[in-house]
Amino acid sequence: MTPLLAVNGVDKTFTMHLQGGQQLPVLRGLTFEVGRGECVVLTGASGVGKSSILKMVYGNYGVDAGTIVLDRAAGPLDLAGAGPRQILAARRDTMGYVSQFLRAVPRVPALQIVAEPLVARGVSRADAEERAAGLLGRLNIPERLWALPPATFSGGEQQRVNIARGFIAELPLLLLDEPTASLDVRNGEVVVELIREQLAAGVGMLGIFHDLDVRDAVANRAIDVEAFEAGPARMAG
Amino acid sequence: MTGEPISYNTGYLDEQTKRMLRRALLKAVAIPGFQVPFASREVPMPRGWGTGGVQVTAALIGEDDVLKVIDQGADDTTNAVSIRKFFVAVAGVATTTRTDEASIIQTRHRVPETPLSEDQIMVYQVPGPEPLRFLERRETETRRMHALEDYGLMYVKLYEDIATHGHIATTYDYPVMVNGRYLMSPSPIPSFDNPKLHRSPALHLFGAGREKRIYAVPPYTDVESLGFEDYPFEPQRFEDPCAICGSVGVYMDEIITDDAGSSMLVCSDTDHCERTAAAKTEQVPA
Amino acid sequence: MNTDDRVLMQARGVGHNYGDRFGCCDVSFELWPGEVLAVVGESGSGKTTLLGALSQRLALSEGTIRYRLADGEEVELSQLSESRVRNLWRSEWGFVHQNPEDGLRMHVSAGGNIGEPLMATGWRHYGTIRATASEWLERVEIPVSRIDDAPVTFSGGMRQRLQIARNLVVSPRLVFMDEPTSGLDVSVQARLLDLIRYLVAELGLAVVIVTHDLGVARLISHRTIVMKEGRVIESGLTDRVLDDPQAEYTQLLVSSILGG
């Protein structure tokens, strides 16, 4: 059974040109898989590179070596070597991403932000907004906020908009970076429910959870990122 | 001051100049509506007083011609009289006020009511030959627009008229499309006269002295006044008859008759008015 | 995003020289329908020169630009006749100038400005032209009651939105934008960028946008090219170029964003 996501021998080093070219190796030989219907969590100390892994899979960060093969409906794609158009296509049809912070376009209403991933996939705006409303309701965002841009929302409210946007398209792979970080217990439970529903539907997930209760509630497997930590920082050359 | 009277070349201009003008005229006739640049000469009147028209007439006029000159339809205004006298002095031609007797008719601001024939040439005095000038100041750009048949801007002007006034407000110098290709300014004749150019049997020549351009509408050429499908070109209408001769459907001037502001409408074409009135008098039983 | 698979424009080794100096050199990229490509750089980076060379406003000193016309024909842009280039501008291309006065007829009414490209392509029904202009005023959030007002009476942001409407009314396939938001107040900029994003997505436009503002690039572009002193320093997916910059100059630019 082809894994949904296969990461193999990935290296990542940051070169800080503005600091005299200092190199910051982060990961070496990173290797793991994510299967459909399973939730794989990344564990390890803060700063070890967990967020960077999610960003490399999403194409937001580049990769220095190795492969990241995504099993798309259109065929396997090595995200490590893929061009911008392919990555954008993969984000549209296969990969969702719930980041830690909502980086929303200013002035766009919350409902529209959440509906956007569906609209991008060809769903009518009306249908997309109906489903968005459903999700926002589940996440306890009051209806009076739906027509407002989230920039003025509380941190927790913004995060729930973020989550709704990440979950709405039910894409095969979902990347989750601390999805419950600023949520209270009640909303955290809603998110756990959402995760379980999608896992049951066959969605594969790769996530970072600092909340141990949530992690235990959803994780199938853990990957200890410290095992792939690269060597100490050194100067270039 | 006595002495030998000055002897002018026929038509005032020297022969080489006349040849240059005729070449320009031939080009103009070959490309209906296209503005042909020419080397505009000094003539004994300032720019803005018809020097273009005068140069065209001078290039064509010969001893067999009969010249009529009108200004706003009248033969007896100062300018018409001056120009007529000028050509009498320098070309020794016969002159007339009757449209049907003239071989060359030089005009400012009107086309005669009397239909023209194939033997006649109309010469128009043109202040501004470029119909797009007031919307596009650059000569380089308007030349390109003509070359590439890029005339959207002219319709913008008509659009603006309709948006502002509810109808196309241009009542004179109404832009036309000549031979389906070139956008042309018919000179400041009233839009009422535009239809007279369409497939006219006469030759129509246009001279702009200050702007140094000559253009032409050869006989039987299509001349179409611009408009929109829902706001088509409509020439002005005059419903009232002339107070002097009783003609209807001709272009009228309004004449103020006293200090109280009373006015009457009379034919702008004085020749037409005179003859119509004379014909009516003949019919009235003695 | 328009998923038409055939590339729209292919630039190879594009360069333009000003005498001995080169304004830009050796620029290569591909552009697909529905994509927004940002060209970022500081003053003197060559980004505006590149835009000029691509849009045929400047002659190509070196390189080639292949473009696929609406009817499918592929042409080498630098070899097109003036008449064909003018045709492109009338029916397939748009150009949004930094200064709206350069892209509008300031003393012609808003309706006339939007209607002109229609009239230039043969529209001859006043009522339809006016109705279409009204629709577009609504789309760019200019009150329809201002349809007969000339842009000389508009604010900067409104002028810019009118310029956008005028460019998009003929449904172009490719729009060039030269710093469309600079000089505008911050909130006005945000509103304008919103509008551009929305219209790009709705109409499936391809856009090449020149900007010195990385925030603008992040907000509306899929891909970004970073230029310095006439050359391409780095290029790729916008969020990657901004979040994981590889080149030294790109890292410098990114770190210089005020407020982070």
- Give the amount of beta strand of chain B, in percent: 15-25%
Report helical residue fraction of chain B: 25-40%
Largest sheet of chain A: 5 strands, parallel
State the CATH topology of the domain at 1-87 and 208-237 in chain A.
Answer: Rossmann fold
Which regions of chain A contain 5 or more consecutive residues with pLDDT less than 50? none
Total strands of chain B: the figure is 12
What would CATH call the class of the domain at 1-87 and 208-237 in chain A? Alpha Beta
DSSP, total strands of chain A: 9
Decide which structural class fits the backbone of chain A.
Answer: alpha/beta
Low-confidence stretches of chain B: none
**What is the CATH superfamily label of the domain at 1-87 and 208-237 in chain A?**
P-loop containing nucleotide triphosphate hydrolases
User: What is the residue-averaged pLDDT of chain B?
Assistant: 93
Determine the fraction of residues in helical runs of chain A and give it as a percent range: 25-40%
Give the N-terminus to C-terminus distance of chain A in angstroms: 43 Å
Order of strands in the sheet with the most strands of chain B? 1-9-8-5-4-2-3
Q: In what range is the share of β-strand residues of chain A?
A: 25-35%
Mean pLDDT of chain A: 91
Count of domain modules of chain B? 2
Word description of this protein:
The complex is a heterotrimer of chains A (237), B (286) and C (260). By secondary structure, chain A is an alpha/beta fold. Chain A has a domain at 1-87 and 208-237: Rossmann fold. Chain A contains 7 helices and 9 strands; from the N terminus they run βββαββαβαααβαβαβ. The termini of chain A are far apart. Chain B is an alpha/beta fold and 286 residues long. Chain B is built from 7 helices and 12 strands. In chain B, the strands form 3 sheets. In chain B, strands 1-9-8-5-4-2-3 form a 7-stranded mixed beta sheet. Chain B has a 3-stranded antiparallel beta sheet with strand order 7-6-10. A two-stranded antiparallel sheet of chain B has the order 11-12. Chain C has 260 residues and is an alpha/beta fold. Chain C has helices spanning 47-54, 82-91, 110-120, 126-139, 156-168, 186-203, 214-220, 238-243, 248-255; strands at residues 9-18, 21-31, 36-40, 62-68, 74-76, 93-96, 174-178, 206-211, 223-228, 231-237. Chains in contact: A-C, B-C. At the A-C interface, strand 1 and helix 2 of A face helix 6, helix 8 and helix 9 of C.
